[in-house]
Amino acid sequence: MRVCFYPRVGSGGPGSFQARLARVLLAEGLQLTYDLDERPLQAVLVFAATRNWRGLERCRRDGIPIVQRLDGINWIHRVHPVPPGYFVTSELRNLLLRLVRARYATRVIYQSTFVRDWWHRRFGPSPRPATVIHNGVPIGPTRVRAAPESPVLLVVEGAVRLDPASAAILRAAHRELRAQEIIERTIVFGRVPSFFHIEDVLEEGMEFRGHVAAEEIAGWQSRAVMQLSLELNPPCPNSVIEAMAAGLPVLGYDTGALAELVHAGEGQVLPYAGDVWKLQPPANLEELGQGGLRIARDWAGTSRRAYLGASARHDITKIAARYREALGL
Question: Are 288 and 323 in a shared domain?
């Protein structure tokens, strides 16, 4: 059996997930292509959207199931000043997502319940069968971790969007956790869009490393005491699942799908005291320190529970089995 992944995704969370899913399916004996015109095809998995309408039309004509893996809706550009080109690109991506969902998809996979409900509120329920499947990561053998001697707060994002709310959260987490001597410094990884200026946010003890290889982030995970989830309304952040799989507790606010991923005892998900959709900084920034202190007081237990939670819910082999079912393979 052959399945088409389309389009082929590069770096970042979607690219990492696509590569992981591909490795599992290939190991299970499936054939994989990234060409919509290759035949025979048992199914097509569209990652977000594409402008290759002709290819999708040919697949539909040939009766090939088209499953869309649907991300969140682009929204930051509507509440934060951005360059005109970024605004137009964001709107175009939303349009492409909607067109594939409405016209071509025979089934939709939402990355989280949050994403499903978001789409249903904005554009109504999917006209085709749909399911929610969270992202997955490889799960290594369990190991007992000791709290790091020089504790670091990690921030790992595909895109570090330093809007007023995110900037306030990053600074507050750094200050509160340092004041309580829970961390010594903060390391930020990810790409920063050109219209955000990270130098305006960095403080003493904060370092920005940009976009780096996954291997480098894995090395830092073993030196970190916790990871801050900075993205607001994340659809299903791979970096959070990766941290948990490494036994790294996660600290963040209850926006997007974070509470679906980080369950009680696996980290700290704090209530967001403000209107996140308007990018209002939360009024309870001091709770970042309190949440970090709760993690630190039971670090070994929280670390182990985070690993066990990732293992039970996000093992890529289990996630791949659910994708095979959705694809009819």
Answer: no
Q: What is the pLDDT of residues 89-122, one digit of tens each?
A: 999 999 999 999 999 999 999 999 999 999 999 9
pLDDT of 137: 97
Higher model confidence: residue 169 or residue 194?
169
Residue 113 domain-assigned (yes or no): yes
Nearest to 168 by CA among 260, 17, 281: 281
Measured CA to CA, the distance from residue 62 to residue 38 in angstroms comes to: 12
Domain presence at residue 322: yes
Structural domain span for residue 241: 152-313
Same domain, 128 and 271: no
Tell me the pLDDT tens digit for each residue of 222-259. 889 999 999 999 999 999 999 999 999 999 999 999 99
Q: How far apart are CA 322 and CA 318, in angstroms?
A: 7
Same domain, 129 and 164: no
Q: How many CB atoms lie within 10 A of CB 280?
A: 15
Confidence (pTM): 0.95
By the 10 Å C-beta count (0-12 exposed, 13-18 middle, 19+ buried), 275 is classed as exposed
Domain count, the chain: 2
